[in-house]
Amino acid sequence: MLTFIGLGLHDERSITVEGREALRASDRAFAEFYTSRLVGADVADLEAYHEVEIEVRDRAGVEQDPDPILNAAETSDVAFLTAGDTMVSTTHTDLRLRAEERGIETRVIHGVTAQSAASGVTGLQNYRFGKAVTLPFPYAHGGDSVPESVIETIEANRERGLHTIVYLDIKVGMGPRGPDPDHEEYMSADHAADLLATEWADVLAVAVARAGSPDSIVAADRLSALAERNFGDPLHLLVIPGDLHHVEADALAGLADAPAELLPEH
Which residues are annotated as a binding site for S-adenosyl-L-methionine? Predict the structure, then answer.
């Protein structure tokens, strides 16, 4: 049995009760933190709280060499852990399909994701979001600006009146000069806003920092203004709102201190 367990957004306690029970009942636990991580806990915290040993795999160890995980799951109960949800954004469908092809039973225990949190903390209605994008560090795509694909997606959503979640780049084990096991870099909301402000300086955006944590921040303003702020420790994301329902406008004003002049009158 291979059980995919989402750990949620913040620390060792963010997992669901079902996920915690499955993790404690497993014979072996693997995890990856190159797609995302818990901002309030490290591996030692997870191991102590859940009373398990966790083997952390890098990207190559999951995507190119999954046999240790799959071999273990053929004869025992194995848990595979990620921050957030293992099948949303940090998707591991390929690993699940490989297990199914080998006749290994699988199941998924979902966790809270940045996607659902972005809607919940901003007050923007989840069914009014369009296609999401990831904003990479400029060095990661060989350029010095925002990739055209990101601009096109945001513009297409705005033309349809839809909100856009902008996930911010994470680089773990990979630096500007190539593979680096000690490298960890997390794009901040102000850095992202600065990149996007070259295209939409006066456009309303919402910065979300450390969603799910006790010290989360939600701030709405022009991209050029958000670029001047410091949102603290990771993880961050941005939301570019589309057309606003009056309840959404009220939420951005009341929950994110959006300037009145940037909101529709009603």
Answer: 9, 85, 88, 113-114, 168, 211, 236
Regarding whether 97 and 126 lie in a shared domain, the answer is no
CA dist., res. 193 & res. 168, Å (int): 10
Binding residues: 9, 85, 88, 113-114, 168, 211, 236
State the Cα–Cα distance between residues 198 and 226, nearest whole angstrom: 13
Give pLDDT tens digits for 98-142. Answer: 999 999 999 999 999 988 999 999 999 999 999 999 999 988 777
- Which of 47, 80, 109 is the endpoint of a domain? 109
pTM for this prediction: 0.90
- CATH code at position 257: 3.30.950.10
Nearest to 169 by CA among 148, 141, 143, 144: 141
Residue type at 176? P
Are 205 and 196 in contact by the 8 Å Cβ rule? The answer is yes
Q: pLDDT by residue (tens digit) across 170-207?
A: 887 666 666 667 778 999 999 999 999 999 999 999 99
Same domain, 96 and 119: no
Contacts of 71 (CB under 8 A, 6+ apart): none
Q: Are residues 102 and 220 part of one domain?
A: no
* Parent domain of 222: 114-262
Q: Structural domain tally of the chain?
A: 2
Give yes or no: residues 86 and 121 share one domain. Answer: no
Residue with tokens 């929950």: 255
Q: How far apart are the first and last CA of the chain?
A: 54
In this structure, are 181 and 219 located in the same domain?
A: yes
